């Protein structure tokens, strides 16, 4: 595994216009990120000018990727980055913030469904040795929401495969952790975790789609349907 | 595997107010779905009244789940359902429409990055026997976008694990297909595929998060960080 130089390295020293060009983002957007505290201020060289470093380019690209590809809101990105910069919260906690931003759903779940889903989650967690102490944890809440939605649309049979999907999730998580094992800096570990989680979700979902095309080709070919 | 009764069954015959109650959606929303053609009209019993069936309840729940949990826009849900109802398009094509709605991204990719990513995708597809004929296919485009984003934020090393993730995707896809093998109705197959894809993405992402907590616990415990 080869890691690129840390985003905090200071090889580059450019003005705002060049920063905009290198990061591929308009000057007005960069100024907005600076005002909102998403981007640390540059090194002031005169009352009206500042110089920016490699870390700024990387940070802007990270903001854009989390928003454009990961689908996070600007507010969630801000919270995640603040927690990363503070360096006090654990990776778990920061991932929780990012995850809350992605998994928040407007879905309403009735009491009976919630109890059924929570029992299902608890049983699953016990079988797989997963943490499930706090039912108010946003990830547990998100899982409850998905299970209820699947049952609610009349596809409860899908959940017969829950354990098989959970096993795949365990394999995926072990693979996710491989990238982090050798890294020493906590800040870097957290950034890796956020990237792997947010962009990794998208990667896995798209790979699954291609694999489904492969897997379904044989099956659907039997049915006489027009493909255009 | 036990399948619930088909959403087209006509056991229930209720008026609008009851339909609203059973589906958990306001009357105004149901009227909007009817006007937009997302919901087929009820059976007219007088000039001002119509009765609705089980299929209407299920259809409304499906619309809500695709929007609230799956994150599809109303327009995308409309296109997906129109294709399902028409019954002419193949499951592939309909999944393509749903997927386009989820994977569309505002991301801009430069020419060099696009070529690198397309070559990476082509190599991967060849190794795994995945379809990759049309580079303009929305799924291929989405994969190109994710690969570029990961490299762009300086985490290109993550892609060393691409083949391992692709293998997991293949296992997932085989599992996905298991639910469809015994079903005969094309309309039902398509609905299953949409549910499995849109809600399944969410399910897998949340399961992965819990599995990550299990996997990372041991690793992060070594680092002295405050978890609150």
Automatic annotation (TrEMBL), chains A, B:
Residues 15-83 form the HTH merR-type domain. One of its GO terms (molecular function) is DNA binding. InterPro entries: DNA-bd_dom_put_sf, MerR-type_HTH_dom, MerR_fam. PROSITE patterns: HTH_MERR_2. The keyword DNA-binding applies. It comes from the Bacteria. Pfam families: MerR_1. SUPFAM superfamilies: Putative DNA-binding domain. The keyword Transmembrane does not apply. Keywords: DNA-binding. PANTHER family: HTH-TYPE TRANSCRIPTIONAL REGULATOR ADHR, REDOX-CYCLING DRUG-SENSING TRANSCRIPTIONAL ACTIVATOR SOXR. This is MerR family transcriptional regulator. It comes from Amycolatopsis alba DSM 44262.
């Amino acid at each position: 595994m080869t890691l690129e130089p840390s985003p905090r390295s200071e090889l580059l020293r450019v003005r705002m216009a060049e920063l905009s060009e290198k990061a591929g983002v308009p000057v007005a957007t960069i100024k907005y990120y600076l005002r909102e505290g998403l981007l640390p201020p540059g090194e002031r060289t005169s009352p009206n000018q500042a110089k920016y470093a490699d870390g700024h380019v990387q940070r802007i690209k990270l903001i854009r990727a989390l928003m454009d590809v990961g689908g996070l809101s600007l507010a969630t990105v801000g919270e995640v980055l603040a927690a990363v910069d503070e360096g006090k919260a654990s990776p778990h906690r920061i991932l929780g913030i990012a995850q809350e931003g992605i998994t928040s759903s407007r879905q309403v779940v009735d009491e009976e469904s919630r109890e059924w889903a929570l029992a299902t989650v608890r049983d699953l967690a016990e079988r797989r040795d997963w943490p499930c102490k706090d039912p108010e944890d946003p990830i547990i809440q998100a899982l409850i929401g998905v299970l209820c939605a699947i049952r609610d649309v009349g596809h409860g049979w899908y959940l017969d495969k829950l354990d098989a999907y959970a096993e795949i999730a365990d394999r995926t998580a072990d693979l996710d952790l491989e990238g982090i094992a050798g890294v020493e800096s906590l800040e870097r570990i957290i950034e890796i975790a956020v990237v792997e989680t947010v962009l990794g979700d998208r990667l896995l979902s798209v790979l699954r789609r291609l694999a489904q095309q492969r897997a379904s080709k044989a099956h659907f070919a039997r049915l006489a349907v027009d493909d255009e």
